[in-house]
Amino acid sequence: MNITFNKRDPLYVQVIRYFKEQIATGAFEPGEEIPSRRELASKLKINPNTAQRAYKEMEEEGLIYTEGNNPSKVTKDIEKIASVRQEMIMEAVDAFVHAIRPINVSLDEVVGLIEAKLNEEQEGRK
Amino acid sequence: MNITFNKRDPLYVQVIRYFKEQIATGAFEPGEEIPSRRELASKLKINPNTAQRAYKEMEEEGLIYTEGNNPSKVTKDIEKIASVRQEMIMEAVDAFVHAIRPINVSLDEVVGLIEAKLNEEQEGRK
DNA sequence: CATGGTGTATTAAGTGATTAATACACGAGG
DNA sequence: CCTCGTGTATTAATCACTTAATACACCATG
After folding, report:
1. Distance between CA A19 and CA A16 in Å, rounded?
2. Can you give the distance from the CA of residue B49 to the C1' of nucleotide D11 in angstroms?
């Protein structure tokens, strides 16, 4: 459970983001139980309602599901998981293109920069 | 003067963004006079203070300058302009890498998506 | 049967930033 | 000299959103 919060985005958004990443990459497997609202709140030192809000939105999106009074679980719908992953990718691409388009810069150049940045961050993880 | 405002970001931020793009691409040339605060506000139908805030930040960043009571002008420092352009590119790259890194996706794939998106938007402009 | 852990719902508070209102100082030009 | 258009500064209002407080229903378990 490695979340580092920035103070720019709302907490619940960052929580959602984290879970989406974990689910999209398979770090949280389909059907796997996730922490209860209160447990997550305790671990992350946030208000339980903030955890609830994040979970609620994820549930409405079909990313997790809840049965009875038990902690929620990751959806078993692997197609849904795949589509969420794809959406995350497309959102990033859209935002990037939208930011880069008005500036005059070649595709090759930005690809080079992206590649460099990716490698750089990989190095940082050694 | 083609600005379309979204309601997600603050007005003054979007104004700054617009001018940065224009200056970075050379659409606004070094030394060129830009609209007065009130004129801009009138054109964009925003409050003059909002225009002022945008201009003030741009001036603090060295993007524009003001002499006496005359409308501000684009900086003549072409190195500054080049560096601002580079910063915009790097910010976009950083944001993109940050968003894409936690997901498991190959460089080739995202490059393909970016290329497709760029072409798609180019088509839309026909 | 009561206690503690679930999820859930409603409402209030706080917080922070953006935007707007207003006023002031300066200078060119009629 | 007065008016109009500049830039500038200070303060207030607004506004949306996030976060928190509180309470309720359910159920398993000792």
Report:
1. 5
2. 13
Beta bridge partners of B65: B73
Domains defined for chain B, CATH in brackets: 11-124 (1.10.10.10)
Helix-strand-coil split of chain A, %, nearest 5: 60, 5, 35
Q: A120 to chain B: nearest residue by CA? A: B97
Nucleotide minimizing C1' to CA distance for residue A40? C6
Q: Is the pLDDT of residue B7 over 60?
A: yes
Tell me the pLDDT tens digit for each residue of A37-47: 999 999 999 99
> Chain A residue with minimal CA distance to B122?
A101
ipTM of the complex: 0.89
- B72's tokens: 């501000």
CA–CA distances in Å: residue A51 to residues A20, A46, A55, B47:
14, 7, 6, 38
Q: What pLDDT digit, counting tens, does each position of A3-23 carry?
A: 999 999 999 999 999 999 999
Distance CA A67, CA A102 (A): 48
Q: What are phi and psi of A35, to 5 degrees?
A: -60, 150
